[in-house]
Amino acid sequence: xxxxxxxxxxxxxxxxxxxxxxxxxxxxxxxxxxxxxxxxxxxxxxxxxxxxxxxxxxxxxxxxxxxxxxxxxxxxxxxxxxxxxxxxxxxxxxxxxxxxxxxxxxxxxxxxxxxxxxxxxxxxxxxxxxxxxxxxxxxxxxxxxxxxxxxxxxxxxxxxxxxxxxxxxxxxxxxxxxxxxxxxxxxxxxxxxxxxxxxxxxxxxxxxxxxxxxxxxxxxxxxxxxxxxxxxxxxxxxxxxxxxxxxxxxxxxxxxxxxxxxxxxxxxxxxxxxxxxxxx
Length: 280
Description:
By secondary structure, the protein is α+β, with helices and mostly antiparallel strands. The chain has one domain. The chain is built from twelve helices and eight strands. It has helices at about 5-10, 25-30, 70-80, 85-90, 115-130, 140-145, 150-155, 160-165, 170-180, 195-215, 240-250, 270-275, and strands at about 50-55, 60-65, 100-105, 110-115, 135-140, 220-225, 230, 255. A hairpin with a 5-residue loop joins strand 1 and strand 2 (about 60-65).
C-alpha cells in the first residue's frame, strides 16, 4: 500500500529534478503534524496554480514538467492513500496493460510501472518479429490534455458519475483534488509527480479494458501502454477498427494511429464493430 508520506517524500518532484532538491523535510513535517494541519489541507477548497518548468530533450524539443502547490498535493496524496485498495483494483482490471503502477522501493520512486522499460522494449521487438500486421495507436499529448472529469467516468462509469457528483465517490474527489491543484482547470494533469501515473492509469486501464473485452479475441496480441495500444493480427489491418476506437475515446483526447492501414472487408468485422459501439 502506498502512503501520503511516500508520495510526498519520493513522488512529489519530477524525476528530472536534480537530487539536491528534495521534499523529504516537507514529508517529515507533515508526518509529525498530521493532527495539527490547517483546514485547507484537507477540506478540498484550496486552489493554486501549478509551477511549470521546461527542460531539454533530444534535439530542439523541450519537455514540460509541473510541480503542484504543497497544500493541494497533500490533499491529492491523502485521497489516494485513503482509497488505495479501490484504486489498485481499478488499475488491475485491464488484462492488456503493461503500465499499471505498483509501489516502489524505499530507495526509489514512490510509484513505478510494473514492467520496466527494458521489458517493454523486448516485448515490442517480439511483436515486430512475429506479426504480419501491427497497428500502433497513441493518445496525443495525453497528460496536458486529458479531461480531469474522465477520472470519475473511468472509475464509476460515465453515466453514474454525471448523475452522482458528490465527493462521497472517490473518483469525484480525485477529480476535485487535481483541478484544485491547477487553479480550477479541468484540462490536463501535472507532468512529473508519481500521482499522475496513478491518475493516467485509472483512465486508460478503463479504456483498454473495454477494448480488450470487445476485440481482444480477434487479435493475436492486444497490448496497452500508458497512452497507447499495440494490436496485431488480421484485425490490425482494418481502417474501421481504427476509426471506431478513435470515436469511442475521443471524449478523452485526440487519438492517433501510426501504421499504414490497408483496406479491409467490412463484413468480416461487422460483429466486432457492433461491439465497439458499446464501449465506454
